[in-house]
Amino acid sequence: MIFVTGPLYSGKRTFARKTWGEVPTVWDVQDLAAGEADPPALADRLAAEYEVVIATEIGGGVVPVEPEVRAAREAAGRLSCLLAERAETVVRVFCGLPLVLKGELP
After folding, report:
1. CA distances from 59 to 13, 66, 69, 105 (A)
2. In 3D, which of 83, 24, 17 has the Cα closest to residue 55?
């Protein structure tokens, strides 16, 4: 599994399509993390079902006042860590530029 992450509108999907083509891909997985009872099982399922998993980084701004929003951000970050752990390749895309954090590009 290939894990691609980066800020919102940074070119993650475009990069993934150009690099790996039309392979089974899921994006916005950070939205699946909130309220997930078993994050490791979710990470295992995503890694098994998709060749490319894309998550948007959402925790780099102002800390929200609402506890449920803070919890959702925490869950998204934890899911990203679990996915990166399981991935063969991890790429962070920023301003359309890929930075390989783990593994290598084809």
Report:
1. 20, 14, 10, 26
2. 83
Q: What pLDDT digit, counting tens, does each position of 78-88 carry?
A: 999 999 999 99
pLDDT tops 90 at residue 60: no
Yes or no: say if 65 and 12 are a contact pair by the CB < 8 Å rule. Answer: no
Domain hosting residue 24, numbered range: 2-102
Place of tokens 């992450």: 5
Q: Residue 34's closest CA among 5, 71, 7? A: 71
The CATH number covering residue 65 comes to 3.40.50.300
Q: Please, is 12 exposed, middle or buried when counting C-beta atoms within 10 Å of its C-beta (0-12, 13-18, 19+)?
A: buried
Provide the domain count of the chain. Answer: 1
pLDDT at 84: 98
Q: What is the pLDDT of residue 13?
A: 96
